[in-house]
Amino acid sequence: MAPRTEQEFKKHVQAGGQVETNDWMPDEYRAKLIKFIEMHGNSELMGVLPEREWILRAPTLQRKLALTAKVQDEVGHAQLIYRVVEDLGKPREQSLEDLIAGKSKFHNVFHYPTKTWGDVGVIAWLVDAAAIISQKALLKCSYAPYARIMKKICWEESFHILHGRDVVLALVTGTEEQRELVQEALDRWWAPLMMFHGNPIPAEDDPMVEWRIKSQANEDARQQFLDGYVPQIWELGLTEPDPELRKDEQTGVWHYTEPDYTELKHVVTGHGPRTAERLELRRISREETAWVRDVVLADAA
Ligand SMILES: [Fe+2]
Ligand SMILES: [Fe+2]
């Protein structure tokens, strides 16, 4: 029988049960879903801005095509995700208004500048790698429509990682200056990457895990990232700017310098080095395209 009380509902999702849009759900669950999924949508949308800056400066036609395709994929992810939020009761227009007004958040990594072509490789390779770890875990999300779209998103993200790795490989096997572009970008991106999965809150204290919106603890995600990618970074002869980073072979646990979680909080609450500028760009483009929406919606009416 379908759950009718909060207690039954919790039991249902904790046992691996899934929920569809029209199923009954507690208000708290709906509110948490909206907040979590909306932040994901915002991140996909804002995440295109740092990379978009490099489309016109891509070194070859092939790179330009690949980067353009990646940017289009990310906007497509935002579109899918905002639709899921809309079905939960928050219209897409409202999500976009709240984003521009600074009322909702987006992921820390998209608040930082992209200074060189090396950033394009490091972002597509490692930021997308960090993201896919969280997104793969969401395939088991208790809210079924969100879990379903994650399949398409993960497939595309894994392709982005290949694209990023290819950009990085070309640079590290090129001239000394090109290799330095990647190393310098990695040095700058390391701290934001280490903060990406959030502070190491235990799974049992994480309300998102309690409702099985998330099924992975932050620290588990970070460990998985380190395990998968640090050996690859080393293989390319690159280094991370953390002298403490090492894997304990006995326990399999990576040790690292504790990221500055005060910075993380500061950045995601709208005070990152590029936050204001990127939100302003979003606001202007929304204003400039308002007539298109007016015309299309007038036609549909
Ligand atoms: Fe994406
Ligand atoms: Fe991606």
Account of the protein in words:
With 301 residues, the protein is mainly α. It has one domain: Ferritin, core subunit, four-helix bundle (Ferritin), CATH 1.20.1260.10. It has 12 helices and 2 strands; from the N terminus they run H-H-H-H-H-H-H-H-H-E-E-H-H-H. The protein has a two-stranded antiparallel sheet. A hairpin with a 4-residue loop joins strand 1 and strand 2. Helix 3 runs antiparallel to helix 6. The longest helix is centred in the middle third of the chain and has 29 residues. The radius of gyration is 20 Å and the shape is globular. The termini are far apart. 34% of the residues are buried. The model has no long low-confidence stretch (mean pLDDT 96).
